[in-house]
Amino acid sequence: MSECDVELGPPHLTKFERAVIIGVRALQLSIGAPPLIDISKIPNKDPLLIAKEELERGLLPITVKRRTQSGREALIPLECLVKKEREVFGDVPRLM
Predict the structure, then answer these.
(1) Most buried by CB count within 10 Å: which residue of 41, 57, 59, 90?
(2) Model confidence at 92, in pLDDT bands (50, 70, 90)?
(3) pLDDT tens digit string along 2-53?
(4) Helix, strand or coil for residue 77?
(5) For the chain, how many structural domains are there in total?
């Protein structure tokens, strides 16, 4: 089994996971956390847009914890989910 095998849930980020990650990261940015991307060329310094761009580039050091009702758990690095998402969807624009 490779490091990026997703055993639990879909092999990509769910809409809920995506929303939580972007929201939490935007909150961090809004209270002074340093951005992980160069924002000098971004005209709108909106923390939500910066957080979304960081997520799309796979720069966030986050691990997603998925659980089932039976108690099974899986820890999945965010970079694996972003990588699998690109393999499945390519450059298709996402709604969120």
Answers:
(1) 59
(2) low
(3) 567 777 888 888 889 999 999 999 999 999 999 999 998 888 889 999 999 9
(4) strand
(5) 1
Q: How far apart are CA 4 and CA 11, in angstroms?
A: 9
Residue 94 lies in a domain: no
Distances (CA, A) of 64 to 15, 42, 77, 82, 84: 13, 28, 6, 11, 14
Domain membership of residue 49 as a residue range: 15-89
Confirm whether 80 is domain-assigned. Answer: yes
Task: Return the closest-CA partner of residue 15 out of 59, 68, 81, 80.
Answer: 81
CB atoms within 10 A of CB 83: 15
pLDDT attached to residue 1: 45
In a domain, 30, yes or no: yes
